[in-house]
Design a protein that fits this description.
Layout (H helix, E strand, L loop, with lengths): L1 E3 L5 E3 L11 H12 L5 E2 H8 L7 H16 L12 E4 L2 E4 L7 H14 L6 H13 L13 H27 L7 H10 L4 H13 L3 H18 L6 H11 L21 H12 L3 H19 L4 H9 L13 H18 L5 H14 L7 H21 L2 H13 L8 H17 L3 H17 L3 H18 L3 H17 L8 H15 L5 H4 L2 H12 L16 H11 L3 H9 L10 H15 L2 H10 L7 E2 L9 E2 H15 L1
Helix pairs in contact: 1-3, 2-3, 4-5, 4-6, 5-6, 6-8, 7-8, 8-9, 8-10, 9-10, 11-12, 11-13, 12-13, 12-14, 13-14, 13-15, 14-15, 15-16, 15-17, 16-17, 17-18, 18-19, 19-20, 20-21, 21-22, 22-24, 25-26, 25-27, 26-27, 27-28, 27-29, 28-29
Length: about 650
């Protein structure tokens, strides 16, 4: 029996014939057990990983999937014999297969062997070991598993490991006196991953090995041009030393050795985080790579035990952040934890500028929907401290970064659009006076959101146009994605006016905006946004909720579910779903979630829930539900507030 996950998930019998694993959920359960590497995965964890909003019988469904997988993987096992491949262990299950029978485990082990012995893993045998491991890749890891959080984390981790394997193999061959035939392979690798500085060194070494000294020097000059002219970074000492060696006619066989002392990190920590900052502003795949490279740089810096270096690495990533839900909550937690450790290491007498940047980082990164009350209080405290220090230091760029954290900590309750607009105004003023174009874009987008929240579409449109003009000069491709959503939101609002666009036109605009967002590299933003926009559009026109089962409601499912059930005529199920609705996360869409709760409570005559929703919305009367995002609208909060209060009065 063999299981492969480096590509689509599959199982093969000893004769190579495929095993029918069943449906997508069956394959995801098997994949999740593979990812655990033999450790037990509890049933509760499987439920949470498989479903955003678990069905009532989720535990029973997991047991059904496991039973079916056991039959498929061990078809000849007698009924009373215990399973040998997927075993029950405590409150969950574990996969029991030798590591050599699972492609991802073989791959990880091969890379680990080469990584553990960087100076002795040379020659054809070591390279052949990595060759076989790399050949196992048939596509992205877990390619047919849905984009759940666990799968995305694994895909990102394994892709980083694959790139490391490619570079390790090249280094092994070059160190052993071979590698002249690596030029084409490394050339393609550098073209696809130009931010991996040691890859340029490997390509130059391969060219030199092939007798192409001039091309090797030209490659190093291209690397310098890319780093200096396009990204504003200095080439590493390694690249400079390699260029000197080639110019002097030395055989540069040992040039790449020092780059492998920190597994998983390809650049020096400072260079990596500077590059990550640049990539983050590009959006899309570059934004995903930026987040990965940033955390790798922080971990590498922490291994030096130099608190000042770690603080500089963490604080250098001052990328403007607009959205109140983190794209990668796990990574954000890791960054916050590192910043807290570094603050402690610096102590109260540490450099004020470094402390301010660490505090601002804590405020910016502490915007995940699942923060505890203690974490939320700490984040708000950090934002205040960062702002105070930045004002005392009179550093405009630092103050803009600190104010970004302050902005992200102003979603503690509904009704604060006017306060956020004041912050956006100050950021925009600072950025304009001190030539901080990326923060100027942020200021414009914050002000767009606030004008949208207050229903002032003309002012919001002016900010959208100004942001787009700035984006054209700063190469900020995410801006037109966000302003495209705003224009869809404006179309939806105007679809209720006489002679305005139709609801179908507004829906088409939302669809186009969603298509643009899918490739923007912002998973914390897009999941569930399109269905929520459609629901808002229907509420604007007093129509029932969309009931398409293929809509991915993402994190907004609990609040949408009562409306979907009501649209299907399942009143008592809707009542039960309403009773289970949690408090909304403190984010851009909390007003929308409270309005959905209020509307469902009114329709179901649930006076207590309607009263609670009205109480929470009392300061948001002048705003429009969902419009604080600048991306969608459910209409005026005042409408939902009045309905809820009337419901309470009628049944009181």
């Amino acid at each position: 029996m063999r299981i492969d996950v480096l590509g689509a998930v599959r199982a093969l019998r000893d004769d190579g014939s495929p095993v029918d694993l069943g449906g997508p959920r069956h394959r995801e359960v098997l994949a999740r057990l593979v990812a655990a590497e033999g450790r037990m995965v509890t049933t509760d964890t499987l439920v949470d990983d498989l479903w955003t909003d678990p069905p009532v019988r989720a535990v029973g469904a997991v047991r059904t999937f496991v039973a079916a997988l056991r039959r498929a993987l061990e078809p000849d096992r007698p009924p009373r014999d215990p399973p040998r491949v997927i075993v029950t262990e405590g409150p969950g299950y574990a996969l029991r297969l030798p590591r050599e029978d699972v492609d991802v485990h073989r791959f990880q082990d091969a890379v680990a062997r080469a990584r553990r012995h960087p100076h002795t893993a040379t020659g054809p045998d070591a390279a052949a070991d990595l060759d076989a491991a790399l050949a196992a890749w048939r596509g992205p890891a877990y390619a047919d598993v849905p984009a759940s959080a666990w799968a995305q984390r694994e895909r990102t981790r394994l892709e980083e490991l694959r790139l490391e394997g490619v570079e390790l193999r090249a280094r092994i061959l070059l160190d052993s006196g071979q590698g002249g035939d690596l030029v084409a392979e490394l050339g393609a690798h550098v073209a696809e991953h130009p931010w991996r500085e040691p890859a340029w060194a490997l390509l130059a070494r391969a060219l030199h090995r092939a007798g192409r000294q001039a091309d090797a020097l030209a490659t190093l000059r291209r690397a310098r041009t890319m780093l200096v002219d396009r990204l504003g970074l200095d080439p590493s000492a390694e690249l400079q030393r390699l260029e000197t060696d080639i110019l002097n006619g030395c055989a540069p066989l040992d040039a790449a050795r020092t780059a492998w002392s920190a597994p998983g990190v390809r650049l020096g920590p400072r260079t990596t985080v500077d590059l990550a900052r640049t990539l983050a502003l590009a959006g899309g795949d570059a934004l995903v790579h930026a987040r990965r490279e940033r955390l790798a740089a922080i971990r590498a810096a922490e291994r030096t035990a130099d608190a000042h270096l770690v603080a500089r690495i963490i604080g250098a990533y001052d990328v403007p952040a607009l959205w109140s839900r983190a794209d990668d909550p796990d990574q954000s937690r890791a960054v916050v934890a590192a910043a807290e450790r570094t603050l402690t290491a610096l102590g109260p007498d540490g450099p004020a500028d470094l402390s301010a940047r660490l505090l601002a980082t804590i405020a910016v990164e502490s915007r995940s929907a699942d923060l505890t009350a203690t974490e939320s209080r700490r984040a708000r405290q950090a934002s205040r401290q960062a702002e105070e220090l930045a004002r005392r230091l009179a550093d405009p760029a630092l103050l803009a970064f600190a104010l970004n954290g302050t902005f992200l900590q102003t979603f503690t309750r509904p009704g604060l659009a006017t306060q956020r607009d004041g912050i956006g105004t100050e950021i925009l003023d600072l950025a304009t006076r001190h030539e901080l174009p990326n923060f100027a874009v942020l200021g414009r987008l914050i002000r767009l959101q606030c004008a949208s929240a207050l229903g002032d579409l003309d002012t919001a449109t002016a900010h959208a146009e100004a942001a787009e003009r700035l984006a054209a000069t700063t190469e900020a491709p995410l801006v037109p994605v966000l302003t495209g959503w705003f224009r869809a939101r404006a179309t939806a609002a105007r679809s209720t006016e006489p002679g305005g666009p139709t609801a179908a036109t507004a829906a088409a605009h939302y669809r186009a905006a969603e298509n643009a967002l899918r490739t923007a590299g912002m998973p914390g933003l897009h999941r569930g946004l399109f269905p929520l926009a459609l629901l808002g559009l229907r509420l604007l026109h007093d129509r029932p909720a969309p009931t398409d089962p293929h809509l991915d409601w993402g994190p907004y499912r609990p609040w949408a579910r009562p409306h979907v059930l009501l649209a299907q005529g399942r009143v008592e199920e809707a009542r039960a779903a309403l009773a289970a609705v949690p408090e909304p996360a403190h984010d851009h869409l909390q007003e929308a979630m409270w309005c959905l709760t209020a509307r469902a409570a009114v329709r179901l005559g649930e006076r207590g829930i309607a009263a609670h929703a009205a109480s929470c919305l009392r300061d948001a009367g002048p705003e429009h539900a969902g419009a604080a995002s600048g991306m969608l609208t459910l209409g005026p909060v005042a409408r939902y507030l009045a309905e809820a209060r009337a419901c309470v009065a009628e049944t009181g």
